Amino acid sequence: MTNAQSIESLEGTNQVDRIPSLDFLRGIAILGILFINTENFAYPDSWSPWKFGFESSIDHSTRFWVYFLTQGKFYTMFALLFGVGFFMFLERLENKGKGLKAMDIYGRRLLWLFVIGVAHAYLIWEGDVLYHYAICGLILMPFRSISNKKLALTICLFASLLLVKSYGQTDRRQVSYSKYTNALSLPKKVLSAEDEKRIKYWESQIQIKKPDTATYEPKKKTYLAGLKETYDHASVHDGQWYHKGLLLRSLIVMILGIILYKSGIFNDYIRWKYYWIISIALLMFSLWVNYIRYYHWTYEYHVPILSLWKGLLFTFPKELLGISYILVLNGLYQKFIKSKVTLISRIGQMALTNYIFQNTLLGLIFYGYGLGQFNQYTRFELMVIVVIIWAIQLIFSWLWMKTHKQGPLESIWRKLTYSSFKS
Fold it and tell me: Would you give the distance in Å from CA 220 to the centre of its chain?
């Protein structure tokens, strides 16, 4: 048997084995994640609801709709699909009778994903999530053979930890705000230094702020300077191998991905008797929660969240909507597109390549070593850049997949994973 045949015999997923709906969903996630990533490249503080890119009221509206419908939702989709891919990969290797070798192959696959992610973080963009996914993939290993009931209990446990954290944060905010209002009622003569500090802090928090119109030099003026800047901000070399704030959230949706895959809905959504009722109900509820959350973040950022129920409700808005996107789009794809390979599916088949490719393009547009358009566009104008990059990626993916079975980085990843396994 040749080395190429040996590699092929070990492959967990080939073109024949692919589930069409998953490629479509993965393509949607890759295209959608560009909305927020573009802002991360474009502004000194992309998360701010008032600092940068606000030249008119339409920019505030654009920011609201982008965050309402996209912020964190496509990351959630991508993470959930990673969980699906984790389970599928090992399942197919197991079905091929690979035994312990399956664990060796998957471990190697995660190792190279980690290396690719770290290279992406240091060479292109420090906001990479691939190395974080690789660590999550290792943590998922014990969940491979656990029943759906125990997986659901694990999700509940992780979710409860985050809900308790939200409750504690809101409770502390209530106490701090109460002390602030009490300090305001005191005569100035009896105010302590702590009271004055508390008043100053809260007055800065509840004040409506004006956009920052200052001129900023582009980040990474030269590529070499950019490498040093990234090294100063990236943290993998300091032992932070995953994003702390995302770990539990990532694991929750990845484990949910395993449950959904085992239920069979990605092959045939009607395996759930009430699929559309569940999907639409979750979508409506998620849209309501996200509307409240992101309206507050965009237009009422200066109003402290003091309600405990709001604090709890705002714990998982993006995850809920991302999951509902998965369910609704999966059903629509199977009902109307019926397993056809679409342009969006081509994007999904090249998810790794397209993720890094779009960030490379963003670096060339906004950083100093490229066009240097950092902090030059309004929130609304950024939408034009998003559409242009979509068009480039759709054309590139279509042309590439006409003559190749995998994207270029997918092919490299596969070869690195299997290169040392020989029959």
Answer: 24
**Most distant CA atoms of the chain, gap in Å:** 89
Write down the pTM of the prediction. Answer: 0.94
Structure-token pair, residue 69 = 């419908």
Burial class of residue 80, CB neighbours in 10 A (0-12, 13-18, 19+): buried
- Sequence length of the chain is 423
pLDDT in tens, 98-148: 777 888 899 999 999 999 999 999 999 999 999 999 999 999 999 988 999
User: Residue written as tokens 């290396």?
Assistant: 115
> Which tokens is 275 given?
């699929």
Confirm if 128 and 121 have CB atoms less than 8 A apart: yes
Residues 6+ apart with CB under 8 A from 270: none
Residue 272 buriedness (CB in 10 A; 0-12 / 13-18 / 19+)? middle
pLDDT at residue 423, as a whole number: 45
pLDDT digits (tens, 9 = 90+) for 355-400: 999 999 999 999 999 999 999 999 999 999 999 999 999 999 999 9
Tokens standing for residue 413: 């990843």
Cβ 122 vs Cβ 227: under 8 Å: yes
Q: Which residues of 203-235 are buried (b: 16+ CB within 10 A; e: fewer)?
A: eeeeeeeeebeeeeebbbeeeeebeeebeeebe
Residue 50 is classified by DSSP as: S
For 151, the token pair is: 């997986």
* Below-50 pLDDT ranges, the chain: 1-12, 423
* Contact present, 413 and 116 (Cβ < 8 Å): yes
Whether 191 contacts 172, CB under 8 Å: no
DSSP 234-253: --GGGT--S-GGGHHHHHHH
pLDDT value at residue 12 = 44
Using alpha carbons, list the distances in angstroms from residue 381 to 257, 362, 364, 377: 35, 14, 17, 6
Nearest to 131 by CA among 216, 15, 287, 246: 246
